[in-house]
Design goal:
The complex is a heterodimer of chains A (about 500) and B (about 500).
Chain A lengths: L8 H9 L5 H19 L2 E4 L1 H16 L10 E5 L26 H8 L3 E6 L38 H8 L5 E6 L5 H7 L2 E4 L19 E6 L2 H11 L17 H4 L8 E5 L9 H16 L3 E5 L7 H16 L17 H12 L2 H14 L5 H23 L4 E5 L11 H5 L1 H5 L6 H6 L3 E8 L5 E8 L4 H15 L9
Helix pairs in contact in A: 2-3, 5-6, 7-17, 10-12, 10-13
Chain B lengths: L14 E3 L2 E14 L38 H13 L7 E2 L2 E4 L9 E4 L9 E7 L8 E14 L3 E3 L8 E3 L6 E7 L6 H18 L11 E10 L9 E6 L2 H20 L7 E6 L4 E7 L9 E2 L6 E2 L2 H9 L5 H12 L3 H8 L2 H11 L4 H19 L10 H12 L5 H14 L3 H7 L8 H14 L1 H9 L4 H11 L6 H11 L4
Parallel strand pairs in B: 12-13
Antiparallel strand pairs in B: 1-2, 2-10, 2-11, 3-16, 4-5, 4-15, 6-7, 7-10, 8-9, 11-12, 13-14
Helix pairs in contact in B: 2-3, 5-6, 6-8, 7-8, 7-9, 9-10, 12-14, 12-15, 14-15
Classes of the chains: A alpha/beta (about 500), B alpha+beta (about 500).
C-alpha cells in the first residue's frame, strides 16, 4: 500500500469519495507520521489525535451517507494563530500560557463545516512576528529540506514556518497560515510548497490572533496549486463578525487551475531587481518569464516606483498596530500572570516574561512611532507611502496588466541561528522585501516553487494579482508549476 | 482650535477677589450613556445592575482574535442627539484607538473618535434663572463636538484584602462625549446647561440622564480671568456626578484658583477631583504625568459613513424638543413664558401636563400642575414619576370644576384625598357628598340667616361694599364650603342691596 500521506488533497478527496480509503485510515497515517517526525522537525506545538480520530470517524459516516463536504476527511494542520475551541491557542507565545479558547475562528470553522479533520496546532513565529520561525516560544522549526551534502539545519521561513514545514514533510495534507508581510509566501518558497495570501477581506480575521489588523490575512499552504485552490475556497467567506471582510461570492478556484494564460498580460516590475540579489534568483525569474511566454502570456516591463519605500513603511505600520493589538495581554484575564508588587509591576513582570525579544522590539517600535510628536513623522507618513504603493499597483492594473511576476524571496533557506540574521534584525526584515508591498496594497499574492538553488534547496516565484482575482493567480501559478515540476524533500528525519 | 469668546462680562456674575473682580470661564465634557439594548461594538446587554461580569461578551473581555462590530442603534442615537443639539452631522467619521493600560480596560485601548467625530458644532439655548425677580436669562452655549466611544469596566477595591476585582459589565457600553465650548460664566450657568442638556437627551430618548447610576457624568473645565481678559489656565474636574456638585465644584475651584493667583502663584493645567464631603477639589494628576494615548485609526473598523437621506429620515422622526414645545405652549396655549419654561424643563412633567391639558383649559391645567402637583411633589420629595395623582385623576378633578360639580376650593381638598388615598375623583365627590350646592333656595336661606344675625355688619357694608366678602365667607363656612361661590356672591350683593 502506498504511503497515504503522499496523497495531495485532490487525490485523497477522490479516493475517499471512491471509498478506496477511509478518513480514519488517512488520519492514522498522518498521526503516525507526526509521531515519528515531530520531535525532530518541531512542526506541531500541540497534536490532537483524539479529536482528529473523532472528526475522521464523523467524516467516514458522512461519506457513507453521501454527504461529503468539499474537504471531507482531509487532515489539516492549523497555525497556532487560529483560535480552536478547547485546543491550545497561544500564537506560540508564552504570554498566552495554557490559553484554550471557548470559541472557534471563522476560518477553521469553515474548514470543519466542509468536513476537514484537525491534526493539531502548528508552530510559528511568536505572534507571527518573524521570517524564520525562530521567535517561537516553542523553539525553531527545522526545514525538511537540507543543502546538498550538508546536515545543517535550515529555517523553514516564517512566520508560518510550522505550516510550510509540515506540508513539505507530509505531516498534514494542507495547512492554514496567515500572512502580514509575507508569512505565507516566504515559508512556502523556502520549503517548495504553494502558499497564497488572498486579497485583504477575502478570509475573516475573526478568531485569528491579531498581529497587524490592516495587513493580516489568512490563506493556505499546500503541496500544489490545486490543493491551495481547494483549501482557499473553503477558508474564504464574508463574516458579519469581521466588518473588514468583503461580501463577494467565493468562486470555484479549482476550476481556474490549468486554465490557459494565453493573452494574459504579465507585468515584470523593474524595481524588484534589488541590489545584491543573487544571480540564481535573477535566473529563476527569467525562467519564470520564459515559461509564461511559452504558455502564450504577454510579458510587459512595468514600474512600481514606490516599491523601495514599502519595507520601511511596513515596519512602521505593522509594529504600530501590533503595539496596540498586543496591549490586551496584560495578565489580568487569561494567559500568563507573573506576580507583582502592584498592578503596574504585575503588568511589567508579566509582559517582560511573556513576550520574546522580537515581539518586545516591535511593541517598542510601534509605541515609539505612535507617540506624541512622532506620529506625523512616522505613522502618518507611512500611511501616505502606503497609499502611493497602492496607487502604483492601480496604475499598472489600469494599463491592462493582469498579474505581476516577481521572485518570492531574495534567497533560499538559511541556517537556523544564522549569525548574520541574529546580529542584525534588519537583515531578517529584508526577507520580506518582495512580499510586503502586496500586504500594504491589500492584494492577493501566491508563491509557487520554480526551481532549486545551487545548493539544492527550493526557490519560489511570486505572482501578484488584481483585488479579488485569485483565479488568475491560480491559473498562472499552475503554468509555472507544470513547467517547473513539484518538489519534495528527501526524508532524513 | 482657537477659542472664541462669545460672552460679554456681566457684573452680576463676577466674583470679588482681594485684588478686584474675577470672571469664571467654564466648558464641559459630558459623558452620556447611549440608550440602546446592546453595547457599542458587541451584542452584550447594557442593562444596569446584574451580578458582576454578567453582561460580558468575548469582545468586551478582549479575548484574542475578537473584533468590534459597530452597533447601528448607537449610531442612530448619536445622530439623533446631534440633530437635537442643532449640530452639524458628519457623514464620514472615524474610530480611533486611545491606548492606555488599566485593569478595567480589557483591550488596552478605548475605541473612541479623535480627529473625525460623528457630530460637529452645534448649540444649546439655556434659560438661566429664575433670578429674584422671577426672570430667566437666555444664554447660548456652543457645542464643539459629539463623539461615540466605549465605556470602561469597573475596578472594585473592597472585595478582597490584597487584590482588586474587575467588573466588565460596563466595558464597551456606548457613550456620547458631548463637548461644549467654554461659553459658561458662572456655576448657575453650568448647572443650567447640564440640566438643559439632560432634558434634551431625555426628550430625544438617547440617554436616560440618570446621574446617580452614572448614565450621565460631567468633566468640568474651569479657569478664571479678569473680566473680559485673556483666558486663564484651566483645570479639569473629572467625573462630577450630580448637577448640585457641578455647581459646588466650580465655585470652590474658582475660589482656589483666584487665591493662588492673588498670592502671586500660577495655575498648573491639571486634572482634579471634586470631594463632595469636603466641598473642594484636589489634584489627581498633572500634565507632566498625563498619558500619551497614542491615538491612531482603529484598523478593525472601517470609517463610519452614511448619506443625507439617512440623516433626513432621523430628523423627520425626531420628537418635539423642549424649546419648540415651550414656544408652542406660549403661542398656542397662551401660557406665560415662566409657566411654559417650568413645564418643559422635564419631559415627564411636560408629558403629564399635556395629558392633563388635552381637551381642557391649558392655563388652568398649567396652574394645577405647577402649583398643586409640583408643589406637593416637592414637599414630599417625590419625583414626577412617583406621583400619587395621575394625569387622568387630575384631569377628572378639573372636569368636576368645569361642570360645576365642585368648587375650586373643594377641588383642593379632593386633590389631597386623591393624593393620599387614590381613587376616582368623581366617585369620591359622590360618596363623600362634596358636591357643590347650586340650589339657590338653600344658599338664599343661609345668606338670610347670616344677614339676620349680623345687623351691625350690614350697616357697615352699606358704607363699605367690600365687606360683602365677609358675608360670602360666612355663608361658605356655614355651608361647609360646598356652595357655588358665584351664586353666594351674587345673592349676598343682592340682599345687601349693593348692586
Amino acid at each position: 500500500m502506498t504511503d497515504l500521506t503522499a496523497l495531495t488533497i485532490a487525490e485523497a478527496r477522490d479516493r475517499l469519495i471512491a471509498k478506496d480509503v477511509s478518513a480514519s485510515e488517512l488520519t492514522e497515517a498522518y498521526i503516525k507520521a507526526i509521531d515519528a517526525a515531530n520531535e525532530t522537525l518541531n512542526t506541531y506545538v500541540a497534536v490532537t489525535p483524539e479529536k482528529a480520530r473523532d472528526m475522521a470517524k464523523a467524516s467516514d459516516a458522512r461519506i457513507a451517507k453521501g454527504e461529503a463536504g468539499a474537504l471531507e476527511g482531509i487532515p489539516l494542520g492549523i497555525k497556532d494563530l487560529f483560535a480552536t475551541e478547547g485546543v491550545h491557542t497561544q500564537a506560540c507565545s508564552h504570554i498566552l500560557d495554557k490559553f484554550k479558547p471557548r470559541y472557534e475562528s471563522t476560518v477553521t470553522a469553515n474548514l470543519w463545516a466542509d468536513g476537514a479533520v484537525m491534526l493539531g496546532k502548528l508552530n510559528m513565529d511568536e505572534f507571527a512576528m518573524g521570517s524564520s520561525n525562530e521567535t517561537s516560544y516553542y523553539g525553531p522549526v527545522k526545514n525538511p529540506w537540507r543543502r546538498k551534502g550538508s546536515n545543517m539545519d535550515l529555517v523553514p521561513g516564517g512566520s508560518s514556518g510550522g505550516s510550510a514545514a509540515a506540508v513539505a514533510a507530509h505531516l498534514c495534507a494542507g495547512a492554514t497560515a496567515t500572512d502580514t508581510g509575507g508569512s505565507i509566501r516566504q515559508p512556502a518558497a523556502l520549503t517548495g510548497t504553494v502558499g497564497i495570501k488572498p486579497t485583504y477581506g477575502r478570509c475573516s480575521r475573526w478568531g485569528t490572533v491579531a498581529f497587524a489588523s490592516s495587513l493580516d490575512q489568512a490563506g493556505p499552504i499546500a503541496r500544489d496549486v490545486r490543493d491551495a485552490a481547494i483549501m482557499l475556497k473553503s477558508m474564504a467567506s464574508v463574516d458579519p463578525k469581521d466588518t473588514t471582510s468583503v461580501d463577494r461570492t467565493v468562486p470555484d478556484y479549482e476550476a481556474s487551475v490549468g486554465r490557459s494564460v494565453k493573452g494574459l498580460r504579465i507585468g515584470v516590475p523593474r524595481e524588484y531587481r534589488v541590489d545584491g540579489m543573487p544571480e540564481e534568483i535573477e535566473a529563476l525569474w527569467q525562467q519564470g518569464i520564459a515559461w509564461l511566454k511559452d504558455a502564450g502570456a504577454e510579458i510587459v516591463d512595468v514600474s512600481l516606483p514606490h516599491t523601495r519605500y514599502a519595507l520601511p513603511a511596513y515596519y512602521i505600520v505593522a509594529p504600530a498596530e501590533a503595539s496596540s493589538n498586543l496591549a490586551r495581554y496584560d495578565g489580568v484575564r487569561y494567559g500568563l500572570r507573573m506576580p507583582g508588587r502592584d498592578v503596574i509591576d504585575m503588568y511589567e513582570q508579566t509582559r517582560a516574561t511573556g513576550f520574546g525579544r522580537e515581539v518586545k522590539r516591535r511593541i517598542m517600535i510601534g509605541t515609539y512611532v505612535l507617540s506624541a510628536g512622532y506620529y506625523d513623522a512616522y505613522y502618518l507618513r507611512a500611511q501616505k507611502v502606503r497609499t502611493l504603493i497602492k496607487r502604483d499597483f492601480e496604475n499598472v492594473y489600469a494599463d491592462g496588466i493582469d498579474a505581476l511576476l516577481t521572485p518570492a524571496t531574495p534567497s533560499a533557506a538559511f541556517g537556523i541561528a544564522d549569525e548574520d540574521m541574529a546580529s542584525d534584525p534588519v537583515k531578517m526584515y529584508l526577507n520580506d522585501i518582495f512580499t510586503v508591498t502586496v500586504n500594504m496594497a491589500g492584494l492577493p499574492g501566491i508563491a509557487v516553487p520554480a526551481g532549486l538553488s545551487a545548493e539544492g534547496t527550493p526557490l519560489g516565484l511570486q505572482l501578484i494579482g488584481r483585488p479579488f482575482d485569485e483565479e488568475t493567480l491560480f491559473a498562472t501559478a499552475s503554468v509555472i508549476e507544470k513547467a517547473a515540476g513539484r518538489y519534495t524533500p528527501a526524508k532524513w528525519w | 482650535m482657537s477659542i472664541v469668546d462669545t460672552r460679554t462680562p456681566d457684573p452680576k456674575k463676577l466674583i470679588a477677589g482681594a485684588t478686584g473682580d474675577w470672571e469664571i470661564v467654564i466648558g464641559m465634557e459630558v459623558h452620556a450613556q447611549v440608550l440602546s439594548e446592546a453595547k457599542l461594538f458587541s451584542g452584550a446587554s447594557t442593562e444596569f445592575g446584574g451580578a458582576p461580569n454578567d453582561h460580558v461578551s468575548l469582545v468586551d473581555a478582549a479575548m484574542p482574535g475578537m473584533l468590534p462590530v459597530i452597533n447601528e442603534e448607537c449610531v442612530r442615537q448619536a445622530v439623533r442627539t446631534g440633530l437635537g443639539l442643532k449640530a452639524e452631522i458628519n457623514k464620514r467619521s472615524i474610530f480611533d484607538r486611545k491606548n492606555y493600560f488599566y485593569p478595567d480596560l480589557p483591550q488596552g485601548y478605548q475605541i473612541s473618535q479623535f480627529k473625525s467625530p460623528i457630530v460637529g458644532e452645534g448649540k444649546v439655548v439655556v434659560a438661566v434663572g429664575p433670578d429674584s425677580k422671577g426672570e430667566f436669562e437666555d444664554i447660548e452655549v456652543g457645542i464643539e463636538r459629539l463623539h461615540l466611544e466605549q465605556d470602561a469596566g469597573k475596578s472594585m477595591h473592597d472585595q478582597h484584602p490584597t487584590m482588586s476585582y474587575v467588573d466588565l459589565n460596563r466595558s464597551g457600553v456606548a457613550l456620547m462625549e458631548i463637548v461644549s465650548k467654554p461659553d459658561m460664566r458662572s456655576a448657575d450657568e453650568a448647572r443650567a446647561y447640564l440640566t438643559k442638556l439632560r432634558t434634551i437627551l431625555r426628550y430625544l430618548g438617547t440617554c436616560d440622564g440618570n446621574m446617580d447610576e452614572g448614565s450621565l457624568r460631567a468633566d468640568v473645565n474651569v479657569s478664571v480671568r479678569r473680566p473680559g481678559g485673556e483666558f486663564g489656565t484651566r483645570c479639569e474636574i473629572k467625573n462630577v456626578n450630580s448637577i448640585r456638585f457641578v455647581g459646588q465644584a466650580i465655585e470652590s475651584e474658582a475660589r482656589r484658583q483666584i487665591a493662588v493667583i492673588e498670592d502671586g502663584g500660577t495655575i498648573d493645567q491639571e486634572t482634579r477631583l471634586f470631594d463632595p464631603v469636603k466641598g473642594e477639589t484636589r489634584a489627581m494628576r498633572s500634565k507632566e504625568e498625563a498619558h500619551d494615548y497614542r491615538y491612531f485609526p482603529d484598523p478593525d473598523l472601517l470609517p463610519l459613513e452614511f448619506d443625507q437621506a439617512y440623516i433626513d429620515a432621523l430628523l423627520e422622526h425626531l420628537p418635539e424638543l423642549p424649546d419648540d414645545k415651550r414656544a408652542r405652549l406660549i403661542r398656542d396655549s397662551g401660557l406665560s413664558p415662566y409657566d411654559a419654561s417650568i413645564l418643559v424643563s422635564d419631559k415627564a412633567i411636560a408629558d403629564y401636563f399635556e395629558a392633563v391639558a388635552a381637551g381642557r383649559d391649558a392655563k388652568q391645567a398649567a396652574n394645577w400642575v405647577i402649583n398643586d402637583l409640583l408643589g406637593a411633589l416637592n414637599k414630599s420629595g417625590k419625583s414626577i414619576e412617583e406621583t400619587p395623582v395621575s394625569a387622568d385623576q387630575l384631569g377628572a378633578i378639573l372636569d368636576l370644576i368645569r361642570d360645576g360639580t365642585i368648587s375650586g376650593k373643594i377641588a383642593k381638598d379632593l386633590f389631597e384625598i386623591v393624593w393620599i388615598e387614590g381613587g376616582d375623583p368623581a366617585s369620591i365627590v359622590e360618596l363623600r357628598g362634596m358636591k357643590q350646592v347650586t340650589d339657590t333656595g338653600a344658599i338664599e336661606k343661609a345668606v338670610d340667616d347670616i344677614i339676620a344675625a349680623n345687623p351691625d355688619k350690614v350697616e357697615q357694608a352699606k358704607a363699605k361694599p367690600t365687606l360683602a366678602g365677609w358675608f360670602v365667607g360666612q355663608v361658605m363656612r356655614a355651608m361647609g364650603g360646598k356652595a357655588n361661590p358665584q351664586a353666594v356672591n351674587d345673592l349676598v350683593k343682592q340682599k345687601l342691596g349693593l348692586e
